[in-house]
Amino acid sequence: MEGSRVETSSAAAETPVVISVENIRKSYGSFEVLRGISTEIREKDVTCIVGPSGGGKSTFIRTLNGLEPINEGRIRILDYTLPGWRKETEQLRRSVGMVFQSFNLFMHLTVRENITLGPTAALKVSRDEANARAERLLDRVGIGNQVDKYPGQLSGGQQQRVAIARALAMEPKIMLFDEPTSALDPEMVKEVLEVIRDLAASGMTMLVVTHEMGFAREVAHRVFFMADGVLSVDADPETFFASPKDERHAAFLSKVL
Amino acid sequence: MNFEIQHLVNNYPLILQGLLVTLRICAASLAIGTVLGLVACFMKLEGRGWPYRFAVAYIDFFRTIPEVVLIFWVYSCLPLLFSFRLTAEASGILALSLFASAYLAEIFRAGINSASRGQVQAALALGIPVRVIWMRIIMPPAIRRMMPALISFLSELIKATSLLSAIGVAEMAYQASVLGSKTFAYVEFLSAIAVLYFVTIFPLSLYVRRTNQKLAGKAGH
Ligand SMILES: Nc1ncnc2c1ncn2[C@@H]1O[C@H](COP(=O)(O)OP(=O)(O)OP(=O)(O)O)[C@@H](O)[C@H]1O
Ligand SMILES: [Mg+2]
């Protein structure tokens, strides 16, 4: 699957910056979870975020669509700024899709309703158009025949693919994934990674928090290492996995590889 | 002891009129209790600040004192504090509304708290307006989960209306005791209203039992 990597990082460097994170900090009480993170993400970048548990990966990715408010610093995404007014944050979220570890599907709605709710309620897309999108996207993630089922009737892998389709139905410019395969049985991990890999190949800008090092090595243009609330390594995958930058990084690599 | 059905045949309109009053008081207390209960529920959901503290105290207070005491208090003491007099029925409705609001607030709160945080976050992440999240994501499952508790409470409320006979509200139990004392046919009248309470309330219990079984079955697999 080597061919599915979209571009080399040197070519990617010419595309515009779509996310710019400026020295953000976030605390829970007196405990600082994000301790001054800055970075820039360019259009079509596929960035994997790895690191030890509790390092702040989830918190970081959730600050990018305003689900976690930040205490200091600033985030610019597309034409939006965080922190910002609620209306602006709502707008931002319509352009930034998110996929959660635990799927978070609407269990009382059918698969179709799960996917059409966002476009109809937030984008004012017509019902026909929303339905067409739902069917097209379900075909794309390989479960076109499940459209009228309830999430509870699907396997974990199928549910996560519905969740991806739900996010894509908003036609986002950026996709955020927080450990999309960690809650899945091993035999279902592949089908979900396949979908994410295709999405990367289609040129979607993506940030993926993951523990799947093989996936990161193969799909990412950049790999971030986050530990103790600091983004301490930002490298292309070859460099990231071959030459550790510091002891923390080396210790992590020796554990996961 | 003989059961003279003739007493019932002669006086059934009064009993039915009493039943009507019972249902009317229930409907009114449920409506007012729902409004007050929603307010208390959202104040308590705030989780802090003075509205929260007020709601906690309010709910604890009206859930703790016996309904009879509340009824007598509203009927006899309220007019002493404020210089106005409510009719017996209005006093009864007010007392039962306060009683209902405290219980309903807790039922509403449990329902809303049972909403999945993850689903709400997913909806927020889609940029769905908060109003729509309430209507489409939070409320429908919350209402479904609240139904058994709401219907159980309705049974309690119907039973509690019989306490209003103590302040002379002409609901069903009052009519039966008045007719009983007039004719000495206590057995006939009290048995008759027992049956009427039963046929009103038992279907509600059946519903609750069925729904709880269904919910338990669902949780099972
Ligand atoms: N709501 C919260 N309140 C208090 N502390 C929190 C909260 N959420 C996260 N934390 C703490 O913040 C730190 C970072 O958590 P985070 O979930 O971002 O880590 P992570 O890198 O995603 O870990 P994992 O790999 O286990 O998912 C942890 O120490 C966690 O305990
Ligand atoms: Mg995490």
UniProtKB/TrEMBL annotation, chain A:
<feature type="domain" description="ABC transporter">
    <location>
        <begin position="19"/>
        <end position="253"/>
    </location>
</feature>
<dbReference type="Pfam" id="PF00005">
    <property type="entry name" value="ABC_tran"/>
</dbReference>
<dbReference type="InterPro" id="IPR003439">
    <property type="entry name" value="ABC_transporter-like_ATP-bd"/>
</dbReference>
<dbReference type="InterPro" id="IPR027417">
    <property type="entry name" value="P-loop_NTPase"/>
</dbReference>
<dbReference type="InterPro" id="IPR050086">
    <property type="entry name" value="MetN_ABC_transporter-like"/>
</dbReference>
<keyword id="KW-0547">Nucleotide-binding</keyword>
<dbReference type="InterPro" id="IPR030679">
    <property type="entry name" value="ABC_ATPase_HisP-typ"/>
</dbReference>
<protein>
    <submittedName>
        <fullName>ATP-binding cassette domain-containing protein</fullName>
    </submittedName>
</protein>
<dbReference type="GO" id="GO:0016887">
    <property type="term" value="F:ATP hydrolysis activity"/>
</dbReference>
<dbReference type="GO" id="GO:0015424">
    <property type="term" value="F:ABC-type amino acid transporter activity"/>
</dbReference>
<keyword id="KW-0067">ATP-binding</keyword>
<dbReference type="InterPro" id="IPR003593">
    <property type="entry name" value="AAA+_ATPase"/>
</dbReference>
<keyword id="KW-0813">Transport</keyword>
<dbReference type="GO" id="GO:0005524">
    <property type="term" value="F:ATP binding"/>
</dbReference>
<comment type="similarity">
    <text>Belongs to the ABC transporter superfamily.</text>
</comment>
<dbReference type="InterPro" id="IPR017871">
    <property type="entry name" value="ABC_transporter-like_CS"/>
</dbReference>
Automatic annotation (TrEMBL), chain B:
<dbReference type="InterPro" id="IPR043429">
    <property type="entry name" value="ArtM/GltK/GlnP/TcyL/YhdX-like"/>
</dbReference>
<dbReference type="InterPro" id="IPR035906">
    <property type="entry name" value="MetI-like_sf"/>
</dbReference>
<dbReference type="InterPro" id="IPR000515">
    <property type="entry name" value="MetI-like"/>
</dbReference>
<dbReference type="InterPro" id="IPR010065">
    <property type="entry name" value="AA_ABC_transptr_permease_3TM"/>
</dbReference>
<keyword id="KW-0472">Membrane</keyword>
<feature type="transmembrane region" description="Helical">
    <location>
        <begin position="21"/>
        <end position="45"/>
    </location>
</feature>
<keyword id="KW-1003">Cell membrane</keyword>
<keyword id="KW-0029">Amino-acid transport</keyword>
<keyword id="KW-1133">Transmembrane helix</keyword>
<dbReference type="GO" id="GO:0043190">
    <property type="term" value="C:ATP-binding cassette (ABC) transporter complex"/>
</dbReference>
<dbReference type="GO" id="GO:0022857">
    <property type="term" value="F:transmembrane transporter activity"/>
</dbReference>
<keyword id="KW-0813">Transport</keyword>
<feature type="transmembrane region" description="Helical">
    <location>
        <begin position="189"/>
        <end position="208"/>
    </location>
</feature>
<feature type="domain" description="ABC transmembrane type-1">
    <location>
        <begin position="19"/>
        <end position="208"/>
    </location>
</feature>
<protein>
    <submittedName>
        <fullName>ABC transporter permease subunit</fullName>
    </submittedName>
</protein>
<keyword id="KW-0812">Transmembrane</keyword>
<feature type="transmembrane region" description="Helical">
    <location>
        <begin position="149"/>
        <end position="169"/>
    </location>
</feature>
<feature type="transmembrane region" description="Helical">
    <location>
        <begin position="93"/>
        <end position="112"/>
    </location>
</feature>
<comment type="similarity">
    <text>Belongs to the binding-protein-dependent transport system permease family. HisMQ subfamily.</text>
</comment>
<feature type="transmembrane region" description="Helical">
    <location>
        <begin position="65"/>
        <end position="86"/>
    </location>
</feature>
<dbReference type="Pfam" id="PF00528">
    <property type="entry name" value="BPD_transp_1"/>
</dbReference>
<dbReference type="GO" id="GO:0006865">
    <property type="term" value="P:amino acid transport"/>
</dbReference>
